[in-house]
Amino acid sequence: MLAIATGCALIAFVDIALGLVIAHLLGRAWYGGPDIWVYAAGPLLALLPDADFLLQPLVERLRGRKLVCHRQIIHYPLALVPIFFAVYWYHPFAAWLTVLCTGAHFVHDSVGNAYGIQWFWPFSSRHVTALTAEPDGRRRIVRFRPHREVLAAEIPPLRTVVRERYLGLTPEVARALDAVTGALMLLAA
Ligand SMILES: [Zn+2]
């Protein structure tokens, strides 16, 4: 159980690092230096879309069927547009911080991932991935996959992903540690 929790924390490291970097750079550009609340908000906003892990059981109960993956609840980038304008009306800095941090999460979810996210929902249900490795060894910059193809695919549960990629010195763990180290070095500079 502790190993799985550690693996989950490592998965979150890249988003935490992205949130810290964005809070740091935006805070410096806007205020000349962000305060502790901005540093706390950045990583939380960058992690926010994955709150649908917690919502998934409730949504499945309401819909009366299992979801193929947790990204079918709040992983919809275009939904950020009305949120941006609603928040901007009251607090422009908070609006930019929200959009940039959650947007960074969506980009991270799209890179090198098997099923990506639905960037253009509700106008298109296609899943977008970037820098994917194809079965024939080629790399593609952007790939669009029909939603029904993703629904039919085998998506491993989080526990399996953690076991296979985040326990031990794997490339994913090295990347997560690099991201946090890089972010902390930027903050300390
Ligand atoms: Zn996500």
Characterise this structure.
This protein has 189 residues and is mainly α. The protein has one domain. Helices cover 61% and strands 7% of the residues. The chain contains 8 helices and 2 strands. It has a two-stranded antiparallel sheet with strand order 1-2. Strand 1 and strand 2 form a beta hairpin. The chain is globular and about 50 Å long. The N and C termini lie far apart (37 Å). The mean pLDDT is 87. Bound molecules: zinc ion. Residues 49-50, 75, 105, 109 line the site of zinc ion.
Please state the overall shape, judged from the principal axes of the Cα atoms: globular
Major beta-sheet overview: 2 strands, antiparallel
Q: How many helical stretches?
A: 8
Mean pLDDT: 87
Return the string of H and E elements: HHHHHEEHHH
From the helix content, strand content and strand pairing, which structural class follows? Answer: mainly alpha
Helical amount = 55-70%
Task: Provide the gyration radius in Å.
Answer: 17 Å
N- and C-termini, Cα separation: 37 Å
Beta fraction:
5-15%
Strands ordered across the widest β-sheet: 1-2
Number of structural units classed as domains: 1
- Total number of beta strands: 2
pLDDT < 50 runs, ≥5 residues: none
Bound molecules: zinc ion
